[in-house]
Design brief:
Layout: H1 11-43, H2 48-97, H3 100-106, H4 108-150, H5 152-199, H6 201-206, H7 210-236, H8 238-257, H9 264-306, E1 327-334, E2 345-352, E3 357-361, H10 368-373, E4 383-388, E5 391-392, H11 398-403, E6 405-408, E7 417-418, H12 419-423, H13 432-441, H14 445-449, E8 458-459, H15 468-480, E9 486-490, H16 498-511, E10 516-520, E11 532-537, E12 540-545, H17 547-553, H18 555-567
Parallel strand pairs: 3-10, 3-11, 6-9, 9-10
Antiparallel strand pairs: 1-2, 1-4, 4-5, 7-8, 11-12
Helix pairs in contact: 1-2, 1-4, 1-9, 2-4, 4-5, 4-9, 5-7, 5-8, 5-9, 8-9, 13-15, 17-18
Length: 571
C-alpha cells in the first residue's frame, strides 16, 4: 500500500512546507556565523560600523527564518490533516464494502480505533516528516560544513560522536518498537469496554453491576497505561542520552578552545553549530520514535485496505430491479467463515410466490435470521443457490438487489435526526405524503401526529427517546417507504401488542399486495393470518404449510403451539 496517494489535493502544501523549512533552517545556520564575525572582527577591531552592519544582517536573517518557520508549520498542518482526511475517507469507503463476515473479523471497536487513533498517529508522522525531512539534513550538513570552515579540530570531535549516537538510537528504538503494536491493541480493548458500557448502560444499572464494570474498565485502562508508559519510557531515554553526548561534546570543544588555537568568536559559533547538529540528530531520533509507533498503526490500517470483501459484484451483473418477488431457495449447506466448517443451514429447499406473506418460526439459534440474510447477500451461500425471479442473487448488482428489498433487522437502529430524516433513509426524495402513508401502514402515524413537532420531532441517537414498539414501527415505515418487491421483517414485531400486530399485517395485505413478505416471528399467533409458515429447526426446514396444515402434521410446530397455549390460553 502506497500511503503517498492520500496526499492527493494537498501536494502544493506538502511542497511548500519543506521550502519554508529550508528558508527557516538556512536562516538559523547563518546567524552563528554572523555572531563569530561580530566577535572576531567587529569587537576585536573596535569597528562599530561593522558590528552594526553584521547586526542588521543577523536581524534580517532571523526575521526571514521566523517567517519561514511560521509558514512551514501552517503548510505542514494543511498537508498532514488533508492526508488524514483522505485516508479516513478511503477507510470508511472500504468498510462500507465489507460484508458482515468482514466486519466480524475486525470487530467494531477495533475498526473505530483504526479510523481515529491509528490515522491520527500517521497524520502526526506526516506532519513531523514534512517539518524534519529538509530541516534535519540541511541543519546537519550545514552545521558540519560551518564547523569545518571554522575549525577542523572541533569537527573531528563531532565525527567521533556521530556513530556513538546512532548505535544508542538503534538499540533503544529496536527495543521499543514491538511495544507500540501492543499499545494499539490495548486501545482496541479500552474502546470495546467503553462501547459495551455505553450501549448497555440500562442493563448495567438494572443489574446493579456498576462496580463490576468499573473494575473491568479499570483493568483494561491500567493495562493500556502500563504498556504505553513502558514504551515511551524506553523512547524517552533518547533525550537524556543525546543531552549527555551534547554536553560532553561542548566540554570537549571548550577544552580544545582553551589551548588558544581557536578564536573566541569561532569557538562560540562552533559550539552553536555543534548544538544545532546534535539537535538535528535529536529531531531525527524523534522521527524514528514516531515512526516506530506509526509502523504499528500503518500495519493495522493496511489490513483494512488490503482486506478483500467477501461479497462483490460479478462482471456484467444485472442492474435490472426485481419485478415480481418470486423467491426460490435450494441450499445444500451454508457456514460462516469463522465457524470452523460447522454448517449453520443445510438442505433448505422451498419456493415462495410473489405477494405471499410467509412466517418463519423456530427456536432461538436455529438459523432464521441467517436464512433471510442470504436474500440481500449479507452473506453468500456456501453451496447451493438463492434465486429471485429465477435469477441467482449473486448475478444481481448488489446495490440494485438491496434497493429492491426492504429490510427491518432485529436491532432497530435509528439515527440522530428527525423522524422524517430517519424514514427518508428508505427513499431520500420521498414526499411528506409518502412518509405519512408508510407510517400509516406501519401503525405509527397516530403517535407521530400527537407529537408537538410531528414528523420534525427529534430522534435521539439509537432512538433512545422512543419505546421498543415505536422504534420497530418507525423502522418498518422506513423499509416500506421504498415500496420494495420483497419485505423482510426479522423479528420486528416482537414489541407490538396483538392488536397492533394484527392491524399491521392487515395493512400490509391491503397496501402491499404485490410484495413478498417474510416475517420471522416468535409467537404462533403471528402465523395464523399468513399464506405460509416455514418451521426451521437446527438449520433445516422441517415444516412448510399453513397454520392449520402444520398443526395437523408437524410435531415441532404442535409443540410450539401447545407450549404457548399453556402460557397464554386462547380466548
Amino acid at each position: 500500500m502506497k500511503m503517498i496517494k492520500y496526499m492527493k489535493g494537498n501536494w502544493k502544501y506538502a511542497i511548500l512546507a519543506p521550502i519554508c523549512i529550508l528558508i527557516d533552517t538556512l536562516g538559523m545556520i547563518i546567524v552563528p556565523y554572523f555572531t563569530s564575525l561580530i566577535i572576531d572582527v567587529g569587537i576585536a577591531n573596535s569597528d562599530i560600523n561593522y558590528i552594526y552592519k553584521i547586526g542588521i544582517y543577523m536581524v534580517i536573517s532571523s526575521m526571514i527564518a521566523m517567517i519561514g518557520g511560521f509558514f512551514a508549520m501552517y503548510f505542514s498542518a494543511k498537508a498532514s490533516y488533508g492526508f488524514g482526511a483522505n485516508l479516513r475517507q478511503e477507510l470508511i469507503d472500504k468498510i462500507q464494502e465489507f460484508s458482515f463476515a468482514n466486519i466480524n473479523k475486525f470487530t467494531t471497536s477495533s475498526l473505530v480505533t483504526r479510523l481515529t487513533n491509528d490515522v491520527e498517529v500517521l497524520v502526526n508522522l506526516v506532519q513531523m516528516c514534512l517539518r524534519m525531512v529538509i530541516r534535519t539534513p540541511i541543519m546537519l550538513i550545514g552545521g558540519i560544513v560551518m564547523m569545518i570552515s571554522l575549525s577542523t579540530q572541533i569537527a573531528k570531535i563531532f565525527f567521533f560522536l556521530i556513530p556513538v549516537l546512532f548505535i544508542v538510537m538503534f538499540l533503544i528504538i529496536s527495543k521499543a518498537f514491538p511495544l507500540f503494536k501492543v499499545v494499539q491493541e490495548k486501545i482496541d480493548r479500552v474502546n470495546a469496554v467503553i462501547r459495551e458500557n455505553l450501549i448497555g448502560a440500562r442493563v448495567v444499572k438494572s443489574f446493579v453491576r456498576q462496580d463490576f464494570e468499573n473494575e473491568r474498565f479499570k483493568k483494561s485502562n491500567e493495562d493500556l497505561m502500563k504498556v504505553t508508559i513502558k514504551g515511551f519510557n524506553i523512547m524517552l531515554t533518547l533525550m537524556p542520552v543525546v543531552s549527555l553526548i551534547m554536553n560532553l561534546a561542548i566540554a570537549a570543544v571548550l577544552w580544545v578552545g582553551s589551548s588558544g588555537i581557536v578564536e573566541v568568536g569561532s569557538l562560540s559559533a562552533s559550539i552553536t553549530y555543534m548544538t544545532l547538529t546534535l539537535m538535528s540528530l535529536m529531531m531525527l531520533s524523534m522521527v524514528f520514535m514516531n515512526f516506530s509507533r506509526a509502523k504499528a498503526s500503518y500495519d493495522r490500517i493496511k489490513e483494512i485496505i488490503e482486506e478483500k470483501p467477501d461479497i462483490n459484484n460479478k462482471q456484467n451483473s444485472i442492474s435490472k430491479a426485481i419485478e415480481k418477488g418470486n423467491v426460490e431457495y435450494d441450499i445444500k449447506r451454508f457456514s460462516f467463515q469463522d465457524s470452523k466448517g460447522e454448517d449453520i443451514l443445510n438442505n433448505i429447499k422451498f419456493n415462495i410466490k410473489s405477494g405471499e406473506i410467509v412466517a418463519i418460526i423456530g427456536s432461538t439459534g436455529t438459523g432464521k435470521s441467517t436464512l433471510v440474510n442470504l436474500m440481500p447477500r449479507f452473506y453468500d451461500v456456501t453451496e447451493g443457490t438463492v434465486k429471485i425471479d429465477g435469477i441467482d442473487v449473486k448475478d444481481y448488482d448488489i446495490k440494485t438487489l438491496r434497493e429492491s428489498i426492504g429490510m427491518v433487522l432485529q436491532e432497530n437502529r435509528l439515527f440522530a435526526g428527525t423522524i422524517e430524516e430517519n424514514i427518508k433513509w428508505g427513499k431520500k426524495d420521498a414526499s411528506l405524503e409518502e412518509i405519512k402513508h408508510a407510517c400509516k401502514v406501519a401503525q405509527i402515524d397516530e403517535f407521530i401526529e400527537n407529537l408537538p413537532n410531528k414528523y420534525a420531532s427529534r430522534v435521539e441517537q439509537r432512538g433512545a427517546n422512543f419505546s421498543g414498539g415505536q422504534k420497530q414501527r418507525l423502522a418498518i415505515a422506513r423499509a416500506l417507504i421504498k415500496k420494495p418487491k420483497i419485505l423482510i421483517l426479522d423479528d420486528s414485531v416482537s414489541a407490538l401488542d396483538s392488536t397492533t400486530e394484527s392491524n399491521l399485517r392487515k395493512s400490509l395485505k391491503e397496501e402491499f399486495k404485490g410484495t413478498t413478505i417474510f416475517m420471522i416471528v416468535q409467537k404462533i399467533s403471528s402465523c395464523k393470518d399468513v399464506d405460509r409458515v416455514l418451521v426451521i429447526d437446527d438449520g433445516t426446514i422441517i415444516g412448510n404449510g399453513t397454520h392449520e396444515e402444520l398443526l395437523e402434521n408437524n410435531e415441532i410446530y404442535k409443540e410450539i403451539y401447545e407450549s404457548q397455549k399453556e402460557v397464554m390460553p386462547e380466548k
